[in-house]
Amino acid sequence: MVASRLPVLPGRLRRPGFGFWAVAFAFVTAIAFGTVPTPLYSLYRERDGFSAFMVTIVFAAYAIGSVLSLFLAGHVSDWHGRKRIAVPAMLLEMAAAVVFLVWPTLPGLLVARSLTGLGVGAFTATATAWLAELHAAHRPGGASRRAQVVGTAANLGGFGVGTVVSGALAQWVGHPLTVPFVVFTVALTIAVLLVLAAPETRPALRPRPRYRPQRVSVPPHARRLFAAAATGMFVVFAALGLFTSLAPSYLAGTLHHPSVALAGAVTFLVFSSAVIAQVATARSSVHRVLLAGVGTVLVGLALLVGAVWLRTPSLAAFLAGGVVSGLGAGLLFRGTVGTVGALAPADSRAEALAGLFLAGYSGLTVPVVGLGLLERYTTPRFGLLMFAGVLTLIVLATAPILLSRPRPHGENGADSVPPNSDRRPVHKADAPRALVIGM
User: Fold this and answer.
1) Domain CATH number, residue 106
2) Do the Cβ atoms of 188 and 180 come closer than 8 Å?
3) Is the whole-model pTM more than 0.90?
């Protein structure tokens, strides 16, 4: 969404600077709540005796809720206003926190994670656009880089914040399956009040358009390259999903480090690495970012497998693998979004990105659930080896296409830029303004 094309109402935008940071705080809080249960899964397993496979099912409930909300409600704030979507989305997360507290059994976990996903999906898309608009209102004519950096940090960084705070509270405060949710209920309440005080930037349309889900489209002139980018996003979500679902089980089991604080810290390191990678390469070409991302994510996967297959499994190697995987995932994320953003015409860029994230959410569910299922019949070490091996093969198969430079129009109709297009070359394009991810 391009902020300069939005209506600006001076009477309602007297405090856009305050609103920007209020929405940023709410963004971090909403995303962070989505990963509060991550370091606690080993405690739920120990208490209730369910398997690693059930952990992946609980995680899948969150992922499915997120993608449904993103595609069914993420774009509705364009019609009804940012605040009217953001507040109900956060109330859904508060309802999920209550379910965690009063119904802490497996069915309750499934319900709570589904509610969390529904809230996060709607809020993520809304907050990303809202930040860009508030920034444009606060600094008219200024560069949009601050909004991009804050949005990326709030989005990916929020995942890490949720795990590290939850893990620390569970480890050192006591009542580990209660206190983290109480604390985040308070934080979400504060965030809702801040959002209510933030200025609206998108007045409701009159008459309201007829409802439709978010459209998903693939640029017909570049389907081969789009497919490669979508496959890359599949790998990104699969790698990050490992650390928000089963990584604590590896720490507590294979690596013999059951600390929930450590489990939260590991996920924090992974997502912080992804944020650092995106911010550090904000001015780099997409081609260079993709080239670095492919190599980095492969090294990270190799380190993870090596860490658990050593005669004495190594926590240090596992941490290193997590950091390197996070760096690679962040680079691939930026590179694939930049590629698709440049491939698609401006008037259908959101629809093309929706297709990209649909592929990503498939990576968030299918491989992780498959890994959990595999561990029911094999060892965790073998399961991780197969998981990393499949992702490695996928990366190696798609990298030549993803890294190829576009030919002039006419040499190859599949991947060339169509005539009369005002788009720049694919691998020199900047990433789109809105980077959306939920997990």
Assistant:
1) 1.20.1250.20
2) no
3) no
